[in-house]
Amino acid sequence: MTASAKEKLGSDPNTSLIGKRIPKMDAPEKAGGRTRYIHDINVPGQLYAKILRSTQVHAKILAIDTSAAKALPGVHAVITAADVPWQRPIGVAKDHLPLKADRVRSPRDEIAAVAADSPEIAEAALKLIRVDYEPLPVLTDAIEALKPGAPLIHPEPPAAPGGPALKPGAPVAFTGKKDNVAMTFEYAQGDVAKGEAESDVVVEDVFKLHYVTHCCMGVSGVIAEFDATGNLLLYSNTQVPFLHKREFAELLDIDPGRIRIIQPPIGGGFGSKLDIYPFEPIVIFLAKITRRPVKLLFTREEEFLASPTRQPVLLKLRSGCTKDGVLTFRHVETLHDNGAYTSWGATTPFVMMQTISSLYRVPHCKYLTRAVYTNNPYAGSFRGYGNLQATFAVEAHMDKLAESLGMDPLDFRLKNAQDPGEVTPQGMHFKTCGFKDCLTTAAARSDYQKKHRDYAARQKDGSPVKRGVGIASMLHVGGGAKIYPSDGCGTILKIDDFAHVTLITGASEIGQGSETVLAQLVCEELGLPLSAVTVVNNDTDITPWDVGVHASRTTFIAGNSAIGAARKAKAKILGAAAAKSGHAEDALDLRAGGVVVKADGKMLFELSRFLRSLHFSDKAELVMTTFYYEPPSKHQDKQFKGDVSAAYAWASQVAEVEVDTLTGIVRLLKITGAHDVGRVINRLGIEGQIEGGVVMGQGYALTENLVVEDGIVRNPNFRDYKLVTAPEIPDMDVSFIETMDGEGPQGAKGVGEAPAICIAAAVGNAIYNATGVRITSLPFTPERVYRALRGQLPPTVWNVPS
Amino acid sequence: MSAKVDIQFRLNGVDRRVEVPPTMSALTMLRDVLDLTGTKYGCGEGECGACTIRVDGVTLNSCLMFAVDCDGREVVTIEGLVADPAGERLQQKFVEYGAVQCGFCTPGLVVQAHHVLESHPHPGRAEIQRGIEGNLCRCTGYKKIVEAIEDAGKMGSDPKLGGARP
Ligand code: FES
Ligand code: FES
Fold this sequence. Notes:
The structure holds two protein chains of two kinds. By secondary structure, chain A is an alpha+beta fold. Chain A has three domains: 3-35 and 488-629, Aldehyde oxidase/xanthine dehydrogenase, molybdopterin binding domain (Aldehyde Oxidoreductase, domain 4); 47-176, Aldehyde oxidase/xanthine dehydrogenase, a/b hammerhead (Aldehyde Oxidoreductase, domain 3, Alpha-Beta Complex), CATH 3.90.1170.50; 313-481 and 636-789, 2-Layer Sandwich (Aldehyde Oxidoreductase, domain 4). In chain A, strands 3-5-1-13-10-11-12 form a seven-stranded mixed beta sheet, with helices on both faces. Chain A has a five-stranded mixed beta sheet with strand order 7-17-16-15-8. A four-stranded mixed beta sheet of chain A has the order 18-26-27-30, with helices on both faces. In chain A, α11 packs parallel to α20 (759-771), α15 (514-526) runs parallel beside α16 (554-581) and α18 (683-703) packs across α20. Chain A is globular, with a radius of gyration of 28 Å. By secondary structure, chain B is an alpha+beta fold. Chain B folds into two domains: 5-77, Ubiquitin-like (UB roll); 84-161, DNA polymerase, domain 1 (Orthogonal Bundle), CATH 1.10.150.120. In chain B, a hairpin with a 2-residue loop joins β3 and β4. In chain B, α2 crosses α5. Chains A and B meet through α2 and α18 of A and α2, α3, α4 and α5 of B. Bound molecules: FE2/S2 (inorganic) cluster (2 copies). One FE2/S2 (inorganic) cluster sits between chains B (100-106, 137-140) and A (217, 268, 511).
């Protein structure tokens, strides 16, 4: 970045906090074990809830007998669907009743719940509940789900027993399904048949992506409490408090204004807390019925069994290019296993099709996704949101096409990569785009091209341990995402008479460090040290509206909002200082805790004294401002075309691996990444997000696998579900490409999801470079790799039905 | 509920006497009976390290230990490391190096690192990585945690500098 570009943004390089290594503001409390997570909060008079889940994969509920449980001393309530005839379906397609009335569709399904004096009593009560089932045919294969005659998962609308099933008020969208297709997404640009006719090389593969789950270290939990007049207070770890207020209000048929959500610090989010899950309404029902505060915490086993997953995907990709290495078309069909209910996982095609259509320039694209119901665990949103799956396939084909042309894979990518200023056929406008710099930087720093040639030459040299390098890149929204009617965020800023700033923002902190970044941005405007700012971000009765933490949007959207509020405060202060000092307002600035003359830096007023003089005067004035920021992006139209983000983030990552061909063990040695982040705001924070994302991507590629057999999760514990541990992490080399986005706060773009996205794709390409064997399914466990190297892993076949 | 057992032990330098059910875990006792919530529940099965405490100088997963087995022993939790020079040093380094994100794993890691530094006064990266193998972190990718511990370890064993106690 040029010095003048920085100046334009108003940063003083001597005192600026932008780009520095700033420790997170909440870190000291956390490091000392003093932070109170939901697990650590207890409300006086609180009862403890536990949930009874189905023992069947798919069955009719014939009868539920709760009498013995109700008779257990210490039990305050035992509820089933019959006790809450007014409950309403939740979730993205409103196809999911919190307490199941007549049918269970997966073994996680909630049948009854208990509130008791202790978790132990609640647990004991669950054991006394008797449920009679009538088994139904089980459907756990997404391909089978499309076949005529497949068992139907939602043949009729979810109903509560004995009455007008669902309350009056807002209509319930979900009316049951005549087939198992929960959602369909179709997108097209150009004419793929023409594209294929123009191709000299065409490749096709079916990719199979597996189940993984978030594994937040803090298990899920909630506390619900009604006051005497029926106002609801929720302690919740949601990432979207304002949207959930509305949903809970609909569920209870009360005014959303009567719901207050307090968000204690969260033990990890990663997208898992974007939807309402049945346990939350159930705890609210118990609190309403018992008139006591009720708390529920999952066990780790429950967290594995009853949390959403990343959606497993079957993806058929056909791609082509000319002999000069120009991409011609991509034809994609995917099948998403929705599981028994619809959560955000079903909507990930929004993101997947962006990668298909716009990561590289492709004139002709056709894309079809069907998300189908099965009796499997249902899929939610997870960091990367479909992009890991799409990128895995697209980047495998970039290598394959380059190889068939005898072209270097980096050169092939550079030839097709997007440039700044481009508007893609899908309507995305890349106002800043550091993609080519990402590619060349990651390649140069990892010595990719030379290694790629050398390692390929050693594939057949007889030594059992091989090395390989693989490159992959990603495109993701980096300036919010216009999914909901508004993508904005509000800020209230108050400066007290000691020049201490309270920044009240709608944007939640979920461990990603947003609170520190927002404080930095405000300090930058007001010329104050970080210690002068307190951030309030966790109480819907106090904070202004925000759409929520998702889509890597917080730094960008909440950052711009915080800057807007700070600039208003600054104008107010400088206006008053100008009046007092006789200087022109634009000749003044805020620096080093005071009002200074811009030209020579001469301090006119110390800020706290000056504010007191305003406040305790005959025309008393407080410095308080509000600001609302809505990004200049557009909703997609019905054809999925539109510029949904105000900025787009880019990254390229090179993986270097070692493959032991005797055992199939793949070791990830190094990740060299280059990220177009617009601009680095907090170097320490962004490095941490990237390193954490890389290792999460490593888990997706190599170790993590939620084993679901016949609808049942077989490994609901950390012994059998392998997260990456400290000794296994790769060397990580991270470079930042600062493209200074014109819309971004201080030039920054979002980066939260980016680092996890390309790892599996890069590792897949690296394994190919090491061994000459292309593996199209994940994860790359020793067994899978061992078998693939011996030709014992048949390629995935999927004959797409029309 | 079965009868409670009366136990006595030293907790963070203070003698404590508590009555606990024989089946209660040390983790539940610390959190629910003694109100020390810095020790976390991450799995309850000895697989994540969020509940790491020190007992007679070694580190244990408190979720796998019965509360009654604390009887007569010396127990240190994250709260006990606040005033301890090496513990304080580690906490500072975790903050300074950006080793804390959601922070849920952090208390267990600080306690484990305290033990690692006591057993190897100047550990190398590989030693640290092996030393914290049993502590899962979903947010950070471990790199900054390892760097923080390494730097804290550079202070050697001089307690004045906040190094590990002899
Ligand atoms: S809670 Fe003890 S090891 Fe996970
Ligand atoms: S910081 Fe979140 S689990 Fe380690």
